[in-house]
Design a protein that fits this description.
Layout: E1 2-10, H1 16-25, E2 38-49, E3 52-63, H2 73-77, E4 82-88, H3 92-108, E5 115-121, H4 125-128, H5 137-146, E6 150-153, H6 162-175
The structure holds guanosine-5'-diphosphate and magnesium ion (MG).
């Protein structure tokens, strides 16, 4: 079994804990308590290599987004193999915050194989009302391409795209 460390970064209330909760427990809370410091969880994915099933275990650090915890972040991302940098597609400044995390990761993490996945969460909110969207998918996708990041829009609420994030990261890390 392979093990990888993964960290979640992003502004508070973009849905980091909800994404982890969806992936690890396949559930969603409308009234989730905000994370204090950081939380640790783990979950596996199975990837296929020819006919063989390979189990990849993620050790996940879900950090708190608040400014007062910012100095703790390096402790969690320093030894990570992968980072999920999350924004909320209904909050414009959350993309800017995500971009500043990407910048920090690129400057501070030595591992050139660090996999960074930019995640636009809460896509469910735009299904009934497209006006709720304030971050264009194309803008975020272009930024991701230019910076060598994986990218998708997801919903922790409905589960759309969540499993795929971890599957893709597992496959990427397995190939490295
Ligand atoms: P964190 O601070 O980044 O960990 O964010 P949380 O996971 O605590 O979520 C903040 C709020 O956004 C909570 O009220 C969640 O229920 C809500 N939320 C999280 N993900 C989604 C989503 O995909 N869709 C919707 N509609 N709400 C979400
Ligand atoms: Mg949280």
């Amino acid at each position: 079994m392979l093990q990888f460390k993964l960290v979640l970064l992003g502004d508070s209330s973009v849905g980091k804990s909800s994404i982890v909760n969806r992936f690890v427990k396949d559930s969603f809370d409308e009234f989730r308590e905000s994370t204090i410091g950081a939380a640790f969880l783990s979950q596996t994915v199975t990837i296929k290599d020819d006919d063989q099933d390979v189990t990849v275990k993620f050790e996940i650090w879900d950090t708190a987004g608040q400014e007062r915890y910012k100095s703790l972040a390096p402790m969690y991302y320093r030894n990570s193999n992968a980072a999920l940098v999350v924004y909320d597609i209904t909050q414009a400044d959350s993309l800017e915050k995500a971009q500043s995390w990407v910048h920090e990761l690129k400057n501070k993490v030595d591992d050139n194989n660090l996999v960074i996945y930019l995640v636009g969460n809460k896509v469910d909110l735009t299904k009934d009302d497209e006006e709720k969207r304030v971050v264009d998918r194309d803008v975020a996708e272009k930024y991701a391409q230019e910076n060598g990041l994986l990218f998708n829009e997801v919903s922790a609420k409905t589960g759309e795209g969540i499993q795929q994030i971890f599957q893709t990261i597992g496959e990427n890390l397995y190939e490295v």
